[in-house]
Amino acid sequence: MENVRDKVVIITGASSGIGEATAKLLAQNGAKVVLAARREERLHAIVNEIKQGGGEAISVKADVVSAEDMQNLAKFTLSVYGRIDVLVNNAGVMPSSRLNELRVEEWDQMIDVNIKGVLYGIAAVLPTMREQQSGHIINLSSTAGYHVSPTNAVYAATKFAVRAISEGLRLEESSTSRIKSTVIAPGLTKTELFDSITSPEVQTIANQISGIGISPYSIARAIAFAINEPDDTLVSEIMVRPTALS
C-alpha cells in the first residue's frame, strides 16, 4: 500500500458501513483521511478511534445533497492539507419499493443523494484536481447499476447514472488532467442501507437475505486496491459481491 501512504482522501457517508471501513483501512495504511457525513458525533468517535490507532484523520459535518456543504468540505480539506488526492463518493440511500407504490418522496431522496450527491462531490474537488494535474474520484455504484430487478427500479436507475457519470469523467479527464475515475459496485453488504426501506414487501425481502451480506471491509479493500495502483494504471470498475448470492 505504498501508493496509499500520505494521500489526502475525502470520504462521504463516512459515519458507518463502507465509508467507516474505508476510512479506517486507508488510515491504517498511512493515508490522511477526511471523514464527511451528517452525524457529527459518530464522525468524532471514528476519528478518535483512528487517531488512537496511530492514523491521521479529521472530520467535517456535511450533507451531500448540499452543493455548499460539499464546497466547504473541499475548502476545509485544502486549508488543512493543501491538496486533495482522492474523493470517495460513498454516501447513498436505498428506500426501494415497487413503482406502483408511488413513493415519490423516496424517489426524490435517492436522486438527490445518489446522483446529485455524486455530482456535487465531483464539482467540489474537480477544479483542485485539474490544477494539480492529478487526482482520483471513486464513485460507489452497485450491482443494481448493472441489473434491474422488481422493487429497485429507481435505485437501480441512480446507480446506472453513477456509472455513466464516472465513465464520462474518465473520458473527459484521464488523458488531459490525469484524473482517474473508478466505479466500485458492491453487492449485498452489511450496512445501514436497508434501514431506509419503508415498503413492507421490500423489508421482508431484505430480512431474508441480509444474513449473507459481506463485510464493508471487503468493499474497503477494493477501494484501497484501486487507490494503490501506480499513476499509469487505472482501475475503471470493480464489482464485489457475496459468494453465496447468485
Structure description:
The structure is a single chain. This protein has one domain (8-240): NAD(P)-binding Rossmann-like Domain (Rossmann fold, 3-Layer(aba) Sandwich), CATH 3.40.50.720. Helices cover 46% and strands 16% of the residues. It has 7 helices and 7 strands, in the order E-H-E-H-E-H-E-H-E-H-E-H-H-E. It has helices at residues 17-28, 40-52, 67-81, 104-132, 153-173, 200-209, 216-228, and strands spanning 8-12, 32-37, 56-61, 86-89, 135-140, 179-186, 237-240. It has a 7-stranded parallel β-sheet with strand order 3-2-1-4-5-6-7, with helices on both faces. Helix 1 packs across helix 7 (216-228), helix 3 (67-81) runs parallel beside helix 4 (104-132) and helix 4 packs parallel to helix 5 (153-173).
How are the elements arranged and paired?
Elements: E1 8-12, H1 17-28, E2 32-37, H2 40-52, E3 56-61, H3 67-81, E4 86-89, H4 104-132, E5 135-140, H5 153-173, E6 179-186, H6 200-209, H7 216-228, E7 237-240
Parallel strand pairs: 1-2, 1-4, 2-3, 4-5, 5-6, 6-7
Protein name: SDR family oxidoreductase
Pfam family, one: adh_short
Family: Belongs to the short-chain dehydrogenases/reductases (SDR) family.
What would the keywords be for this entry?
246 residues, alpha/beta, Rossmann fold, seven-stranded parallel β-sheet, globular, NAD(P)-bd_dom_sf, oxidoreductase, oxidoreductase activity, acting on the CH-OH group of donors, NAD or NADP as acceptor, Sc_DH/Rdtase_CS, KR_dom
